[in-house]
Amino acid sequence: MASTRSIALDARAVARTLRRMADEIVELFDGTDDLILVGIQRRGVQLADRLVEMIREREGVQLPRGALDITLYRDDLQTVGPRPVVGKTHLPWLIDRQRVVIVDDVLYTGRTIRAALDELADFGRPSRIALAVLVDRGGRELPIHADIVGKKLDVVQPARVDVQVSELDGEDAVTVVTGGEA
Amino acid sequence: MNSPHLGKDLLGLEELTAAKIQLLLDTAEPFKEISLRAIKKVPTLRGATIVNLFFEPSTRTRISFEFAEKRLSADTVNVASAGSSVSKGETLVDTARNLEAMKIDMVVVRHAASGAARFLAQRIESNVINAGDGTHEHPTQGLLDMLTLRDHFKRLEGLRVCICGDVLHSRVARSNIWGLQKMGAEVAICGPRSLLPNHVESLGVHVFRRIEEAIEWADALNILRLQLERMQGGYIPSLREYNRVFGVTREKLERAPRDILIMHPGPMNRGVEIDSDVADGPHSVILDQVTNGVAVRMAVLYLLAGGNPALAEAAKG
């Protein structure tokens, strides 16, 4: 069966959505004190970079940006296995008593976020952790929800949500893929 | 368990493709960071049981594997031949089968007989990792040497690496030669004729008879330990003579046309194959090799334990 792709967010919509998310992050934490953004490898990192830049433009504050690779914290090594190459985790500061926003592209089953929370706990004890995702596609398998959601999509398995970012993919877009390889 | 990346076992570098070696080195890279964390542990192999079966004395390799296993949260058991049923005459296969009956997942084996790791791998279902078999191979040492070289030079292709000393008795030399050649490096060996293998030409390496020639040619020297315990006499006139002719000294290195990276798999015979001021000098990466050893072994364990990467990508959520 041939796959069908429909654009959920084009480049302008992605930019608009991220600007709103940046504003919501500042509002949620009532400012930027002790705030760190941590992107989940891979595309969460680029989205976190954008949010940091938008917050800098608005608030005049350059927030630290970290990266988490959760591959080694997945709970499914024995069943579906890891991605072959592990990415890098980069958290060069103490996160104790900091306020951390985890940034990811798509929230689906919740297992990635569970792994990210486990990994963060190995680095320290933040005073608060919030979750910001560009897309919430539903289909949760764990009791996890996002504090800040760019776009809510009702996508039923086996359809796939692809997030593209210009830094890695040449353009910004959110696409829903149904049929075919999805 | 069969890994889609490595197969069931890691027995040697001779049988690995360049792509698989590349994958192992690339996978080891991010594992380095885990050893720098306050909590040096990730839950990846939680629930897996690994037996370190060492039929030969070993300090750094066994400890390095054990660190790698523990940092991936595996449960580990160490079995040494002394004090075990092996000393009562139990065979290698019986020992391993008994351990396997206790539902283990992986065996890391060191044995004095070349081919022992393969012999074991063909007879048990658990993943087998060769931690050194006789004078055959020591694949994880070869990998950590390559990772250390790549860290320093940012490439392996075209690199000139000379393996110096007791090549005849060295499993490290064979893993290095096969691994480095696959990755596009030029490899040479240097040592007394009595300590080079008979079929040296078939290995496709340059052969230097004088250490000065090796120093002039190489980007890196991998200096091997003179394996006195494997020699039954007659290989070299004396240790003093060996040091004078083949020992790597500061004076000899000062005549090199370029800075040469100094490597040694350890343990070192200081004052024999390497002088202390070289081992502890600015060009020595001997301790970096030890650090990289843990990362490489974590990568091997991780990839052998892994499932299907295509399914994993689809399961991201």
Report on the architecture of this protein.
The complex is a heterodimer of chains A (182) and B (317). Chain A has 182 residues and is α/β, with parallel strands linked by helices. Chain A contains four helices and eight strands, in the order E-H-E-H-E-E-H-E-E-E-H-E. Chain A has helices at 11-28, 43-59, 111-123, 166-169, and strands at 4-9, 35-40, 65-68, 99-107, 128-136, 148-152, 160-164, 173-178. Chain A has a five-stranded parallel β-sheet with strand order 3-2-4-5-6. Chain A has a three-stranded antiparallel β-sheet with strand order 1-8-7. In chain A, helix 3 (111-123) links the parallel strand 4 and strand 5. In chain A, helix 1 (11-28) packs across helix 2. Chain A is globular and about 50 Å long. In chain A, 40% of the residues are buried. Chain B is globular. Chain B is 38% helix and 14% strand. Chain B is an alpha/beta fold and 317 residues long. In chain B, strand 3 (106-111), helix 4 and strand 4 form a beta-alpha-beta unit. Chain B has a five-stranded parallel β-sheet with strand order 7-6-5-8-9. The model of chain B is unreliable at 307-316 (pLDDT under 50). Chain B starts with 17 loop residues before the first helix and ends with a helix. In chain B, helix 5 (139-153) crosses helix 11. Chain B is built from twelve helices and nine strands. The A-B interface holds A 69, 72-74, 76-90, 106-112, 118-119, 122-124, 139, 141, 160 and B 4-5, 23, 26-27, 29-31, 33-34, 37-39, 41-45, 47, 72, 302-303, 305-309, 311-317.
